[in-house]
Specification:
By secondary structure, the protein is an alpha/beta fold. It has one domain: TIM Barrel (Alpha-Beta Barrel). The chain has 14 helices and ten strands. Strand 2 and strand 3 form a beta hairpin. The structure holds adenine and zinc ion (ZN).
Length: about 325
Amino acid sequence: MIGHLKKVELHCHLEGAAPPVLAQAQANKYGVDTRDFLRDGAYVWHDFTSFLGAYDAVASLFRTEADYALLTETYLGSLAAAGTVYSEIFVSPDHGEAVGLGADGYIAGISRGIEAARIRTGIECRMVVIGLRHKGPERVEWAARYAANCRNPLVTGFNMAGEERVGRVADYARAFDIARDAGLGITIHAGELCGAFSVRDALDHVRPSRIGHGVRAIEDPALVDRLADEGIVLEVCPGSNVALGVFPDFASHPLRRLHAAGVKVTLNSDDPPFFQTSLQREYAVASEAMGFTAAETDEMTRTAIDAAFVDEATRAALLERL
Ligand code: ADE
Ligand code: ZN
């Protein structure tokens, strides 16, 4: 049983964490027909492209600061109930713009939800701004400039997600330069839909301290050694990988082999209700399907705090809470 262990999450997309009941309530409020993406209390998709479509459809149900405050507080409340002390949520100002709320209103609503959850449960949270790769380099640079200039102390990192098969990492290097120069922590989705080359591109062009997924580095032993030598932290999401067919099952998932090779790894849920998972389930999978001991998953939690995009006083306080 690992339910009692303290937990940390570094990789979860906010709209991807919306419980289907909340999405349905929002749809009822705005008179939206959900049949294309939400049926019988579950999100409906069949491949990565349709997953991204369903994600955008769910995001379009959150339209005001209050909607985003509710979504944020709801997700952080569920994490706190599972023993989570720290969460980094991925937020995409593009989704705020898409519903006419605007990036400022979007971030303000999420900030309100973070504050409310912290007061109610003690959970600490930071935002990592996402640029959406399939929108192209200029739009990702826009997101980086927004993150660099928004002056919100809860925005502490920058990331790129979306369709990894669009373009090459080098096309997006400027966005990461903007974010790095502003002092933001850097992470990037790579090695999920594309192979080891994508992880190598990320290391060469973006110089991240962490990589989202990165699991297909396992296809290149020299790259696995490089990840270990450079101390790059992988935000691993086993349930997401199996749901999206990156690996056929947990038995063939490379988390165990990456860990054995000395790569720093952490456990994360990515878009939990889309993949029938939760952070608690990811810890349970690591324990029950992959054979990690409680000491080993605790070490992953510690690794996550070491790699968190927080100031040193907050990091020390989080380590105290383990
Ligand atoms: N956006 C939400 N979930 C994602 C994932 N698993 N990969 C890339 N972009 C995403
Ligand atoms: Zn992700």
